[in-house]
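INTERNAL AUDIT FORM
Audit reference: QA-55
Scope: verify that the stored structure record matches its stored sequence.
Auditor: D.O.
Record contents follow.
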Amino acid sequence: MNGSSGKGGKAGTTIETKARVPLCGGGPKRTDYIKKYGGQDGDTTAQPITTMMLKNIPCRKSQEEVMSRIDQKNFANRYDFFYLPRDVKFRANLGYAFINFLTPQDASAFKKEMDGFRFSESGSVKACAVVPAHVQGLMNNLAAFRRTEVMRSSRKPYFSGNAAT
């Protein structure tokens, strides 16, 4: 294809082709969460990290079991939002959860405590990983879920206090 850059191009011409976006697993790739749920008062700059994603949760763990384990690790009353997505058909979680902490310090302490944690009684050898979530803060998480089917089902996220009103 001497000199061409693209399918069917002639020498010396440029044909631009767009990359195809996969239809599945594209949530974070397709949505600009900072633009959609940016900082407070419409500020789209970085805000303190309070919402963490806990990955590699054994699939048979319930939301209550994972929350109980987090509470046992001295994080009780230190978070106001928790969501463990579930697959209703297979009666299993999807292996990750979102937790919003009251302070960035609590979120950082959670990362230090739970990064590499293993649910010993689960039969799984996977080690948990903790990373900042795409959607940050209680109000942004509430806004992200407010009008979704999840909020009208038995798979609702946990919101503490008056956050869900």
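Auditor finding: record pair retrieved intact. Strands lie at 51-55, 79-83, 86-87, 92-93, 96-101, 129-132, 158-159.
Action required: none
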